Amino acid sequence: MSQVFHEIEKKIIASLKDVQKQTPEMLEKSTSLSPDQVRRGIEWLKLKDLAIVNESTSSILTLGKNGKESLELGLPERRLLNLLKDGPKKLSELQKELGPIFGPAMGLCKKNNWIESSSEQLSSLSIPAELPGEKTIKQIRTEKLSKDKVDANDLASLLRRPDFIVEEVIKNKEISLTDLAKSIKLSESTGAIDVEAKVPEVFVARTHPLKDTIDEIREIFVTLGFSEINGNMTQPSFWNFDALFTPQDHPARELQDTFYLDKISAKKIGTSEQIRRVSDSHKKNWRYQWDINEARKMVLRTHTTCVTIKHLAENKPDEARVFSLGRVFRNEKVSYKHLVEFNQIEGVVVGKNATLRDLMGIQREFYKRIGITKIKFWPTFFPYTEPSLQTMVYNERLGKWVELFGMGIFRPEVTKPLGINKPVLAWGGGIERIAMLKYGLDDVREFYNNNLGWLRSATKCQ
Amino acid sequence: MPVIELSYSRLQKLIGKVSKKQISDSLPFLGLDIESEDKDLVRIEYSPNRPDYSTDFGIALGLQGLLGKKTGAVKLVVKKSNKYQISVKPQVSKIRPYVTGIVAKNGKIDDKTIKQLMVMQEDLHFGIGRKRKKSSIGIHDLDKITFPLVYTTTNQNHNFVPLNSDKELTITEILSNTDVGKDYGNILENSSHMPLILDANQKTVSFPPIINAAVTTVTPKTKNLFVEVTGINKADAEDMLSVVATILQTAGFSLESVQISGAKNSSPRLEQKKMIVSSSLVNQTLGLDLNTSKIISSLKKSRLDAISKGKNIVCTIPPYRFDIFGEMDLVEEVALGYGIQNLEPTLSPSQTIGQTSPISVVLKSLSLIMTGLGYHEALNSSLTSKRVLYEMTNRNTSKIISVLDSKSQEHTILRDSILPGLLENLSKNIHESYPQKLFETGTVFSLDNPISEKINFSCVSAHQDSNFTEIKSILQSALNTGFNMKIETKTATHPTFEAGRCANVVVSGKSIGIIGEINSKIIENYKIRVPVVAFEISLSESILKSL
Q1: What's the pLDDT at A426?
Q2: What are phi and psi for residue B260, nearest 5 degrees?
Q3: Which of A439, A441, B175, B504 meets the CB 3.0–4.6 Å disulfide criterion with B181?
Q4: pLDDT tens, B351-396?
């Protein structure tokens, strides 16, 4: 227990050393602290086992409306008796004089045999020097008086009558020091503060946790020798689909999977040679009527591969390592595992000696650097790569293998029409999946909720 | 991707002498993902380029190869027959010109087999059939049909008892009253004449691509099958038939040919293809050094036939493998037969120096400056709603860019501004402690030949004492510290900001954005209980301009 005291605590302890039992009100006076400061000081001391708070209740009496009237004019029965002091008086006369109190006053005097009545008039029999209740009224007067200061019998007669006495029950606190507190030497703690006390929480402003993962992934690929390229999120279908050998009647191109922009088509989608050779590849291999208007339709890119393939078609490098990173879109129902918009990374290696095993090696090295060592490769299918693989990584928390990046070598049907003559290793995948592993999230929507509680506290777990 | 349910015990019977574990270990190396397992049942996902994997018969063929139980190409044995003939009338040419077919005899059809065939049929309809538009299959009880058949057209008053019905319906009734009619009727484009297959007794066999006749329904009592495929492209119809024929032969049926004539139709081919792959391409692509005999044995495990011819390998590809277009497809078949798990990853030395894009460099340094100034980074979607983007912020809606048919009400239009999203974020955080300070950088979209994409930077500060001076000094400090850029603020009006407390952000005489105190009615719209100040500027027209 800290032996460091706040100024308030010191003042209260000092005062209680002088006067051992005090109410909060007494402490206010003796310490010159505000009621709130005293209340807080007592609470702190109680928590530290330095103060004892005894709580009791007591009654405080004040005069009610009828009591105040009686203080001024006398009790109704006294006023009646006073009028009869000089001999009998007519009922009507008395009634006029006393008003509404006449009835109750007469009843009371009769009951006590102080008066007698004939047909028309009242006369007094005996007039006591002090009537029941008169003593109490005089004692209370206009003050508040503790109930134990008055004669209980005398009070009882008034309590039975309406609105003579108001009784208020109040709680009393009496504060005293514990033995431990009595031994405290206040002079020894001067200048110290409570270094063990709790402090208010402040929040560090931070970059977004998902952005941190994106940056980390970007850095890893840069250190592996890849350069970043940028491209548009809105793309003509030509680059998002046709250039990647996805036939125009392929289910993935339907409205329910892809976001098409309403009534927006691109006028220029590529060079005339690119368009001719891509359409020829479709007609020859997929056997259908290729339609340029279908290729002009603008879509929100469904993958960043469109950015990479366009870059390769424009630059036709013999050797290259490039990647692009950014938002992609799928027309899906939003759920704990699906977003309509998420981030993807897509990279390629171009080189005449590039092999599938190199592609696997790059993936393995990447996962190693983000802390994932348990991986395996399975065959899979993509329309634009052959052979195609997917990486499976082991999620320790879920206890199962989850699919991560897809990869493969671009098909000649994709590269040849665009004038790319060297093998192109390509890979890509969603970044949110990796970020979910890192932050231990089960709901991908959390990344875009911008819930300050989470943003202020998120910590990486892997 | 399609998912089907299989039983391990049935697969074991089809493959022959194999453990359950061997099967579950090998499935992924055929390219099949195991979705879930429950005792004997396993649900797997297959790629639509391999419709033969829509049944356990097809998967068993693949596993036999991979496990070395049976290798080499599956040969279709089709007995030539002239008992089964279809003549095609010229009038179908305009609507659904091609038909092909085959007869499958003496098979055992239990309920499970019927279920497998139905799944295969539906997956073929969806995938290569493109929802029955390109091609569609009918599978019938052969013994209920009298040959020769005729493929012709009829008018909409023609009637017959369709599958799953007990009364006669006209074509019109089928199209307007049945589920399949409603789903697929549009393929026929409301033509006055409808395709129809009739038997020798004028009995309706099928109304392609909509529905078969009830009389030819396949049941566990069926012994012999007749399969017809119709379509708009002859080659697609033949491809589809080759899958069905292969699966039926694997299921124990013996096949007999159907002769088709008339209107440019001819007998089905079901031919194997020959294709050459060079061993150097295989080794160069996979990064291996395999000799030709190893390549050949790998191809055989992938259920192709191959022989060597010098440095080349001549492959024989069964007709159902129409996913094989060229040499690279064969390289993949070698890789699968060799075993992906046997490919050791290599790390070839990097010959390039990596580089972050200049845009990423700028955005990252801006993020660091803003966190240094006490601002949290937020991330919002580019696709948002009219409510958030315009209604709540009182902005002009004249140039909305919408997407078609979004499944989510919250994601229907592309943002042209970042600020509304940040205000929405504040609105959702009113129970969190203040001050709340957020920033975001991201792409905004505008209509322009056809669309231009720019990068904006926006920032909000919400707390009891927030004011114009505070937010201006933040913007000024951020741009000056990070980019040595001086700004001016010139009086302006904007529907989102309070009149008299709003300015254009001007750099070198050009306005690049807006800054000020958010209009109190808008703050009320968002149910925020403290004043909010904000700015939004275009980075593309200032800091990123020269990149």
Answers
A1: 96
A2: -120, 135
A3: B175
A4: 788 999 999 999 999 999 999 999 999 999 999 999 999 999 888 7
Residues in chain B: 547
pLDDT at A125: 79
Chain-chain contact of A249 with B133 (C-beta, under 8 angstroms): yes
Which chain A residues in 342-361 lie under 8 Å from chain B, judged by CB atoms? Answer: 351, 353-358, 360-361
Q: What does the alpha-carbon distance between residue A135 and residue A387 come to, in Å, rounded to a whole number? A: 112
Tokens coding B377: 């980074």
Q: Over the stretch B104-144, which tens digit does the pLDDT of each residue have?
A: 999 888 888 888 888 888 888 988 888 888 899 999 999 88
Query: To 5 degrees, how large is the angle CA B346–CA B352–CA B354?
Result: 105
Task: Kindly state whether A385 is in contact with chain B, defined as any CB-CB distance less than 8 angstroms.
Answer: no
- Give chain A positions within 8 Å (CB) of B368: 207
> Cβ distance B218 to B137 under 8 Å?
no
DSSP string, B194-250: EEEEE-TTS-EEEETTTEEBGGG---TT---EEEEEEESSHHHHHHHHHHHHHHHHH
Q: How far is CA A136 from CA A68, A157, A165, A280, A425, in A?
A: 12, 10, 10, 116, 106
Beta carbons of B439 and B512 less than 8 angstroms apart: no
Judged by CB atoms closer than 8 Å, whether chains meet at A387 and B432 is answered as no
* Model confidence at B194: pLDDT above 90: no
What is the full DSSP assignment across B471-523?
HHHHHHHHHHHHH----EEEE---TTEEEEEEEEEEETTEEEEEEEEEPHHHH
Core vs surface per residue A244-278: b (16+ CB within 10 A) or e: bbbbbbbeebeeeebbbbeebbbeebbeeebbebb
Task: Give Cβ neighbours of residue A418 (< 8 Å, ≥ 6 apart).
Answer: A243, A274, A277, A278, A309, A312, A313
Q: Is A194 on the interface with B (CB under 8 A)?
A: no
| Chain A residue with minimum CA distance to B286 | A356
- Out of A65-69, A216-220, B475-479, pick the least confident: A65-69
CB of A448 less than 8 A from some CB of B: yes
% of chain B beyond a pLDDT of 70: 100
Instruction: Specify the residue for token string 């032996």.
Output: A3
Q: Do A340 and B381 touch (CB under 8 A)?
A: yes
**Quick check: helix, strand or coil at residue A228?**
strand
β-pair partners for B169: B160
Contact B492, B503 (CB under 8 A): yes
Q: How far is CA A79 from CA A72, A165, A330, A437, B404, in A?
A: 11, 19, 97, 93, 96
CA distance A458 to A454: 5
CB-based contact B410 A334, cutoff 8 Å = yes
The distance of B107 to chain A (nearest Cα, Å) reads 33
What pLDDT does B8 receive?
Answer: 93
Nearest beta carbon to residue B328 from set A360, A383, A412: A412
A212 interface with B at CB cutoff 8 Å: no
Q: What are phi and psi of A21, to 5 degrees?
A: -125, 125
For helices B292-301 and B56-66, angle between their N-to-C axes, nearest 10 degrees: 160
Spell out which residues of chain B touch residue A358, defining contact as CB-CB under 8 Å.
287, 346-348
> Between these two residues, A83 and B338, which has the higher pLDDT value?
B338
Residue A22: DSSP 8-state? B
A379 cis-preceded (ω within 30 degrees of 0): no
The model's pLDDT over B55-68, given as tens digits with 9 standing for 90+, comes to 999 999 999 999 99
Pull the structure tokens for residue B210: 């909509």
Q: Give the residue among B431, B426, B424 at the shortest CA–CA distance from B410.
A: B424
Range 250-289 of A in CB contact (< 8 A) with B: 251, 255-256, 259-262, 264-267, 285, 287-288
A177 and A20 Cβ atoms separated by less than 8 Å: yes
Sign of CA dihedral A294, A295, A299, A302: positive
Q: Is B366 left (phi over 0), alpha (psi -120 to 50) or beta?
A: alpha
